[in-house]
Amino acid sequence: MSHGGLGQRVGMPARTPGVATDMTTVGIIGAGHIGSALAQGLVARGYEVVISNSRGPETLADLVARLGATARAATPAEAAEAADWAIVTVPLKAIDDIPAAALAGKIVLDTNNYYWERDGHIAALDDKQTTTTQMVQDHLAGAHVVKAFNHIPAAAILTDGAAAGTPGRRALAIASDHADAAALAIAVYDEFGFDTVDIGSVAESWRVERDQPAYVVRQDADELRANLARATR
Fold it and tell me: What are the contacts of 155-160 at 24+ separation with CB within 8 A?
């Protein structure tokens, strides 16, 4: 298990996040608390956002109005098509509805967690045979998936960030089998004001999921590494 910090992985994002002169479009599939918070934060940082949900673009009119001119509502397929990179933030039970073909060749940040009370029991997860992000990667076989933003409350995404080098800066974990996806997630975390701890492969991503010591706890990088090491399965 790798517990690296910023720059642990080789490889860089295909496009530099937040460059307003060549605006990067982020497709967000899922407009709940996490999706909406990330959309707000991304718009504030110079991204174009195309956000979607399962109920139709018309249900997102109020959210898009609040986000401003660089955001628009769309269907999941349209958001995936428009995206330079994407965020998937839907209930785990809905991952089969994510448009896989449109996301092929793209980096996807996955915020998923398993709540059996909501998602129904999934035997492969109950039996510890896979992880939620591995399930998303398996469905999005042509995409480069990275687990990110799954273990922080939605409101804290917009309030807990701090400048690089700030003592006690909050840290968040990533897990991916793709260096470019890991590098993009690290860059986005830094833009939002968070340090990164790299868990390594998605096979290890269970360490930062529900009921583990690192889940929704405010922690700096050293504390996060310690909590990841304490995780049990």
Answer: 155/33, 155/37, 156/218, 157/34, 157/37, 157/38, 157/41, 157/192, 158/37, 158/40, 158/41, 160/193, 160/194, 160/218
